Amino acid sequence: MEEELPHKIRRLSKDFNRDISNDGAKRIMIPGKIFLECLLVWPDREMKYITVFNWFMFINVIIFEITHACFVVPNIADYTTVIAVLVTVTATFQFLVKFYVIVFKKSIINQILLNIWREYWPLSVLSPKKVKRHSSTCKVKLRLILGCYTLAVIFAAIITFAPFLTNTELIVKSIFPFQWNKTYTYELVYTWQFVTAWYITFLINSFDMLMISVVIISAVQFAVLQNVVKNILTEKGERQRRYLYNKDISNQDMFKRWLEQQRMLIDTCNKLEEAFRIPILHQLFCSITGLCASSVILKVDQSKFLEMSTIALANMFQLFYYCFASNELTLQSEKTSDAVYFCNWQISQDMKFKKALVLVLQRCQKPLSLTAAGFIDLNFLSYIAVLRLCFSFYTLLTDLIVSKLEAAELQ
């Protein structure tokens, strides 16, 4: 089944674009889809030239990472250099993890996209007022992601253009088995690093844009489920059934379909967790590393204020919207039990319906959340905990570096 999914999505790509564009929640996937298509990594693409390109970029970035990481070896005694290199090394490794998921686990992502497109109920099943509210909320969340994207582009522009203006350095400090600063060789190496650095920047942020959009859409789908089950025994519920299925169906049949929809949504969220748990774990590590390293360098080297402050802000925003989206998913999945309880079940004479409600309430007791490889649930509490951890590492590193500098001055 998984092998057929990419063909299904590709064959209906025009319908896919049209349908998600007409839904107030699903349309926030469009920017991420456009960026990933431009980068040739949208999960429904299987052409041979794209496969060759993907493997080429994967190997290319591995070489980029190795040459950059090797720079630490001869400069291990220089703490500021090691810390600065650590920022870009972890960011590049972040690319490798996310690239691996989006390219080599495309069957899981295709299944998620297919469910969102074909199985998720449209937002328009709600009242116009609620549709407008949820659509506006989704737009605000998309702007948050685009804000972080902008910071990443600013940072990439700083690190890629500044060295060329001085004509003395590479974009990222690296070691090569040849003399890279010769005429023409420097230009070739610089161009290679320039293209690779921009590709890394765009892919990391485009991956985040798609992932966060899918999580937000799933959270909104829980809100749709809540509204439908809350109205299941009312006239409004009958109108919703006719809108969804173009026919009148009984309360019992509607509740069965609601249960199937809830099960499908939970399965989709579990697939999300399966696909993204490792990238999330690495994202936590990169955010901690980026925040600590940039803050330490700001402390000891004021000349890199613009570059390091941009890195710090980008890492804070990136971690924040991961936690924000996961927290929203958790809250909406928890609210489902309240909606089930307040569905006016007491007016129903169907005992099977009431017994089924008890089972549904039990199923809703466990809220859904994104985790870092199953170790840490992403929410606002974990966000604050990570910031505190970053501050602790920052204090430790600055004390260590300052003491080393003072000892060197005394000598």
From TrEMBL:
<dbReference type="GO" id="GO:0007165">
    <property type="term" value="P:signal transduction"/>
</dbReference>
<feature type="transmembrane region" description="Helical">
    <location>
        <begin position="380"/>
        <end position="402"/>
    </location>
</feature>
<keyword id="KW-0675">Receptor</keyword>
<comment type="similarity">
    <text>Belongs to the insect chemoreceptor superfamily. Heteromeric odorant receptor channel (TC 1.A.69) family.</text>
</comment>
<keyword id="KW-0472">Membrane</keyword>
<feature type="transmembrane region" description="Helical">
    <location>
        <begin position="55"/>
        <end position="76"/>
    </location>
</feature>
<dbReference type="GO" id="GO:0005886">
    <property type="term" value="C:plasma membrane"/>
</dbReference>
<dbReference type="GO" id="GO:0005549">
    <property type="term" value="F:odorant binding"/>
</dbReference>
<keyword id="KW-1133">Transmembrane helix</keyword>
<keyword id="KW-0716">Sensory transduction</keyword>
<keyword id="KW-0812">Transmembrane</keyword>
<dbReference type="InterPro" id="IPR004117">
    <property type="entry name" value="7tm6_olfct_rcpt"/>
</dbReference>
<protein>
    <recommendedName>
        <fullName>Odorant receptor</fullName>
    </recommendedName>
</protein>
<feature type="transmembrane region" description="Helical">
    <location>
        <begin position="142"/>
        <end position="164"/>
    </location>
</feature>
<feature type="transmembrane region" description="Helical">
    <location>
        <begin position="82"/>
        <end position="103"/>
    </location>
</feature>
<keyword id="KW-1003">Cell membrane</keyword>
<dbReference type="Pfam" id="PF02949">
    <property type="entry name" value="7tm_6"/>
</dbReference>
<keyword id="KW-0552">Olfaction</keyword>
<keyword id="KW-0807">Transducer</keyword>
<dbReference type="GO" id="GO:0004984">
    <property type="term" value="F:olfactory receptor activity"/>
</dbReference>
